[in-house]
Write a structure and sequence with these properties.
23% of the residues lie in helices and 30% in strands. The protein is α+β, with helices and mostly antiparallel strands. Strands 1-4-10-6-7 form a 5-stranded antiparallel beta sheet. It has a 5-stranded antiparallel beta sheet with strand order 12-13-19-15-16, with no helix packed on it. The protein has a 4-stranded mixed beta sheet with strand order 9-8-5-11, with no helix packed on it.
């Protein structure tokens, strides 16, 4: 645990309520039965017939089911709560063990929080950026099918466009009307909307954005949902939810040939770009990716298993962000994806996986940056031939520096859970 005793902005009563209820509900017999029915969908997928797919199947299913439970628990827009619903490493806090919940290629640098929104109501979001501030994005999304899908972005703001006070505090307004000159305004639309907030930490020692929400006006609130009603909603929504996230891996990049990257793909609302693809290597092979940082406020590279779940991003180097890498002498960045340590500082550890997904992100990119120049090369190499494949002067690692890398990750990760 880090020396600071400052309470994490994520350790809120709303978070404790949502996690405690979701953990209790997913153990109900009818939800366990729905999970077993969903398991048949994964077993029928060709990925389940690979070693990595078979070993990761139940972990993926458990994380998808808990992610659904967290969203349904927090699906009352008339009594809005801010809940951190998607993050897959396990954690111990609030007196319980939370095993992790995730959907598709969950970024360990991110804190993704959600608020359900009624489009006929008005809301006020109060926040304060940490010092220094992280890259922050907030958007209103609609058009979900039983909680699943990516939805359609209605409006979005980033840390570059939010007007703050000198102390980093801000107030956002939310309603179904256009901004009409109002700064810090997000427009919803009638019906059910979701507000998604994302901190992207290029340094795990930074402080997450503090957030609160209040519903100011709107139609009369219906009765509070019972736990039975919430459980029934989870059961009813699970088939659609599991089919979507299981199918996501086959659709979002077109299931490309391994060891190449598809992109650049612009994010809705213009807040960033990504490149992605599949990796497939032998134990003695590596994928070497050289990029630029595009002058972005945030950059990140991670791998996941074939189900799109990150393996172990805390104790292993399964991801690297802008503060964790070392650039080449010319300012470019070279990453090496390998199952065995290649001795390069910017090693992306597959945690024993020989196939899976890789994803690179840039956020807060200046408008002058050409996104087509973000990735310079992708090469496959034998580890024995790596010296000839790497650019000149690639930063290398020693046993001491590698140990320090991992110790820094563990310490930074623990800061999220200071109660």
């Amino acid at each position: 645990m880090p020396a600071s005793s400052t309470r994490s902005p994520l350790a809120t009563p709303d978070q404790q309520y949502a996690e405690s209820l979701a953990l209790r509900l997913v153990e109900l017999p009818r939800i366990r039965a729905a999970r077993e029915q969903a398991r048949a969908v994964l077993l029928a997928d060709p990925i389940a017939r690979t070693p990595e797919g078979w070993l990761g199947l139940d972990r993926a299913l458990d994380q998808w089911v808990l992610a659904l439970a967290m969203r349904v628990v927090n699906a009352d827009p008339f009594r809005p709560r801010i809940v951190w619903g998607v993050y897959n490493p396990p954690r111990i806090w609030f007196g319980h063990v939370y095993p992790g919940a995730a959907v598709a290629i969950d970024n360990p640098d991110n804190c993704n929080r959600e608020i359900p929104i009624d489009g006929d109501s008005t809301y006020e979001i109060r926040g304060r950026f940490g010092n220094p501030a992280m890259q922050f994005m907030i958007e209103i999304v609609t058009d979900f099918e039983q909680y699943s899908g990516l939805g359609r972005t209605m409006s979005a703001l980033t840390s570059q466009s939010i007007v703050t006070e000198a102390d980093g505090s801000f107030i956002l307004t939310v309603d179904s009307q256009p901004a009409n000159g109002r700064s810090n305004h997000l427009q919803s639309e009638p019906g059910t909307n979701w507000m998604f907030m994302r901190d992207s930490a290029s340094d795990w020692t930074k402080e997450w954005t503090t957030l609160s929400v209040v519903r100011l006006s709107g139609p009369p609130a219906p009765h509070v949902r019972s736990e039975d009603a919430i459980a029934d909603d989870i059961v009813r929504s699970m088939p659609v939810w599991i089919r979507f996230w299981n199918g996501f891996k086959d659709d979002f990049l077109g299931y490309p040939e391994p060891n190449r990257l598809v992109g650049p793909i612009g994010r809705p609302g213009g807040w960033g770009y990504l490149f992605g693809g599949r990796f497939e290597i032998a134990p003695d092979e590596a994928v070497v990716v050289t990029t630029t940082d595009g002058a972005a406020n945030y950059t990140g590279f991670q791998i996941s298993d074939p189900w799109t779940l990150s393996p172990d991003p805390v104790y292993r180097l399964a991801s690297l962000n802008k503060s964790q890498i070392r650039p080449n002498p010319d300012g470019t960045i070279t990453y090496v994806i390998a199952a065995n340590d290649p001795g390069v500082h910017n090693w992306i550890d597959t945690v024993g996986l020989l196939q899976g997904w890789m994803l690179l992100r840039w956020q807060g990119v200046p408008s002058a940056t050409d996104p087509a120049t973000l990735v310079l090369s992708v090469k496959t190499s034998k580890l024995s031939d790596l010296a000839e494949t790497l650019p000149q002067g690639v930063p290398m690692a020693t046993l001491a520096s590698r140990s320090a890398q991992i110790a820094d990750r563990i310490s930074g990760y623990a800061r999220r859970y200071i109660e």
